């Protein structure tokens, strides 16, 4: 009997996505994937045209970070595929589950200067967790299953499915059973592992005996969905919690146990880490920013490192105990192992824990208050973050662009719940993430208030996606930190070479509110800090089109970074103080 269920390879790809309940998807079509697009139309795949493929990956990455589900992108061969690289590396380094379908040259003519052809497989392979090339149309279901399995297992990451033109346009008689999938791989983590018993017992003994332990949380806490485990571990065992930028929200920032950000910028955490006799690191790679260029922790301190990627343990610091396992499972297992001594720990650490809110109050009242509540114009960045803390609902999201926006937000923004409220692109720290990232987060949480915080330089890169957001009726709010400069670079030039010695770091003064209006969006320009609250409320009320709040901030490069006025900083050779 002949099989009448014949379809194109493109349709088989769509059916495998739908089998995983996938969507939304972002992409820009080309001839190679036309059968895929036609099937997306006929079968109802939630697919959206993007204006720049890099922004497609940024949006998919933020969607994955907020939802835990697999982010989806597609691109045509050549420039479409290579435009994905920056966003793919963000997802790879940050552990975001993603599947990217890319068209490739027709194999009968590959290598004969086909239009837009390049060795894209070699270019893309280092930018993804795994690259799977479809060489036989009947293997599409198998390869797509594999893509979702790899994307959602271990440390999640992006998987590329490279589809030659003749595979996408070809025909094959599939059986319905070919499209069966394991629903566990619709989101990450699909599979979890636990630490071995012996190192776990050793770690528990070290923690129980410690007088000043501290837990350092990275973005892996959110990948593992381990915030409840962090809160339980900290409360039951009387252990304060500090976090990286990506780890913000591992515990509520308003908790008395929260020591805030640690690393390059901090409130009180770095001193607590220096004085700690037992440092527990969970879901954190201990990279340059988190360790203040590898000076935190100091050599010889007791460190317990819990991570589900064993090669990250010892890469930058040799831990006393290595716990190979999922963050949630590992912290719960440690809690169970410490249950017999938990009451004693809470009693002996009463005075230690009392230090945390007291030190935070001193930081707030004496170190930061002048900037947090500043009435100065142009507007102080700290005042802007204060207004966000006051007006962003606790179930909202702040998406922070790389560099300037992420560091200010990482230091000063407060996640009021133990959840991933703050989403910076710290996997690769590329600028341009704020707007497309906000779009992806809004799609992951349709009813939430979503704010993208970006510099004018980052916004210039991607402002074409305002059209995409308007077309999709996404009520995101984009705050453009307008300092007419590539702020981080100009501040570093000021720090390193002195006042007036700037090169290629200034931008033209631009009114982004008028630009937003011209694109059919909602534009607001704010020059006075007293107007910030009303601007935020006005923007949050726009639920079916994007709003751009153009905030005029300082032009003084000595005040552009969230540390103290950098005119007072002494820089020695080899330093990276900001």
TrEMBL record:
Pfam families xref list: TPP_enzyme_C, TPP_enzyme_M, TPP_enzyme_N
A GO BP annotation: isoleucine biosynthetic process
Entry's Gene Ontology molecular function annotations: acetolactate synthase activity; flavin adenine dinucleotide binding; magnesium ion binding; thiamine pyrophosphate binding
The entry's keywords: Thiamine pyrophosphate
Similarity annotation: Belongs to the TPP enzyme family.
Keyword presence, Ribosomal protein: no
GO cellular component assignments: acetolactate synthase complex
Record domain Thiamine pyrophosphate enzyme central: where: 200-334
Thiamine pyrophosphate enzyme N-terminal TPP-binding domain span: 7-123
Domain Thiamine pyrophosphate enzyme TPP-binding intervals: 402-551
Record protein name field: Acetolactate synthase
């Amino acid at each position: 009997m002949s099989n009448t269920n014949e379809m194109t390879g493109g349709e088989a790809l769509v059916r495998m996505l739908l089998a995983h309940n996938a969507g939304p998807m972002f992409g820009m079509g080309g001839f190679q994937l036309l059968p895929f697009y036609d099937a997306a139309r006929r079968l109802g795949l939630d697919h959206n045209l993007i204006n720049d493929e890099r922004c497609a990956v940024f949006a998919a990455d933020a969607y994955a970070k907020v939802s835990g589900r697999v982010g989806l992108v597609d691109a045509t061969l050549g420039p479409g595929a290579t435009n994905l690289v920056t966003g793919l590396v963000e997802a790879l380094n940050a552990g975001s589950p993603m599947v990217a379908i890319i068209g490739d040259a027709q194999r009968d003519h590959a290598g004969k200067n086909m239009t837009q052809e390049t060795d894209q497989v070699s270019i893309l392979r280092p930018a993804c967790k795994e690259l799977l090339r479809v060489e036989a149309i009947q293997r599409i279901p198998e390869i797509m299953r594999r893509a979702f399995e790899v994307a959602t297992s271990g440390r999640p990451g992006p998987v590329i499915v490279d589809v030659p033109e003749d595979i996408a346009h070809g025909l094959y008689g599939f059986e319905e059973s070919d499209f069966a999938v394991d629903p566990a791989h619709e989101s990450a983590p699909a599979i979890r592992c636990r630490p071995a018993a012996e190192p776990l017992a050793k770690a528990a003994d070290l923690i129980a005996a410690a007088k000043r332990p501290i837990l350092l949380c990275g973005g892996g806490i959110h990948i593992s969905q381990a915030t409840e485990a962090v809160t339980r571990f900290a409360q039951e065992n009387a252990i304060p919690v500090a976090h990286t930028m990506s780890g913000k929200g591992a515990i509520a920032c308003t908790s008395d146990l929260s020591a805030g950000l640690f690393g390059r910028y901090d409130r009180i955490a770095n001193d607590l880490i220096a004085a700690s006799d037992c440092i527990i690191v969970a879901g954190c790679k201990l990279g340059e920013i988190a360790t203040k260029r590898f000076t935190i922790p100091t050599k010889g301190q007791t460190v317990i490192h819990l991570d589900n990627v064993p090669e990250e343990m010892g890469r930058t610091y040799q831990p006393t105990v290595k716990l190979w396992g999922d963050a949630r499972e590992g912290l719960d297992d440690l809690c169970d192992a410490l249950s017999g001594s938990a009451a004693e720990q809470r009693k002996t650490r009463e005075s230690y824990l009392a230090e945390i809110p007291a030190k935070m109050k001193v930081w707030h009242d004496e170190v930061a208050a002048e900037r947090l509540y500043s009435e100065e114009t142009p507007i102080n960045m700290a005042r802007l973050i204060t207004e966000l803390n006051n007006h962003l609902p606790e179930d909202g999201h702040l998406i922070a662009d790389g560099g300037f926006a992420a560091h200010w937000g990482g230091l000063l923004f407060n996640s009021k719940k133990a959840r991933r409220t703050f989403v910076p692109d710290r996997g690769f720290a590329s600028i341009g993430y704020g707007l497309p990232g906000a779009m992806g987060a809004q799609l992951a949480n349709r009813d939430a208030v979503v704010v993208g915080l970006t510099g004018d330089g980052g916004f210039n890169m991607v402002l074409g996606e305002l059209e995409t957001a308007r077309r999709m009726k996404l009520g995101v709010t984009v705050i453009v930190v307008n300092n007419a400069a590539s702020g981080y670079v100009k501040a570093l030039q000021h720090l390193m070479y002195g006042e007036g010695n700037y090169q290629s770091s200034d931008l033209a003064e631009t009114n982004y509110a008028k630009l937003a209006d011209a694109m059919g969006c909602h534009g607001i320009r704010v020059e006075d800090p007293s107007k910030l609250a009303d601007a935020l409320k006005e923007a949050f009320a726009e639920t079916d089109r994007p709003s751009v709040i153009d905030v005029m901030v300082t032009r003084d490069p000595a005040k552009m970074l969230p540390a103290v006025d950098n005119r007072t900083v002494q820089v020695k050779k080899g330093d990276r103080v900001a």
